[in-house]
Amino acid sequence: MSVLSDTIEEFIKEMIPENSTSVDLKRNELAQYFSCAPSQINYVIKTRFNYNTGYHTESKRGGGGYIRVMRVNICNQDYLMTVLNDTIGKAISQRDSQGIISHIYDQEIITEQTAQVMNAAIIDKAIMAPIQLKDIVRASILKSMITTILTKCGKKEQ
Known about the structure:
- It contains seven helices and three strands; from the N terminus they run H-E-H-H-E-E-H-H-H-H.
- The chain has helices at 2-15, 27-33, 38-48, 77-88, 94-106, 112-122, 134-150, and strands at residues 22-25, 55-60, 66-71.
- The chain is globular.
């Protein structure tokens, strides 16, 4: 099922034009296109297009219903505060951390090499702490890296 989810995710990302920040989708049309249940589309939207990964979604149900997927600007102060305080908070999983790093990379704020270094710093293997403390230590490390990197928001990494 993850191969289909990956394919749907990439398809939706490609549908968002570069000069735009959002796209309106019809759940049933996407499900028909991918020969899957509409619930599969819901799953992809819920797990792959959220604040952790730099997206916000809205939906309207009914005959003329849609799902609007919006890319969030990482340099937006409100988004940044939400990421630091709510999304990361006091503890964060490795997977959610990698989603945030991926979004910062996708926004071209960091290079691929920097993203790789950040990912290396937050993986379980790199955090030498008892298992019950890893997510807490990871949150602290990630907040520090993001705060440092985003002080140059809007500037390309050299």
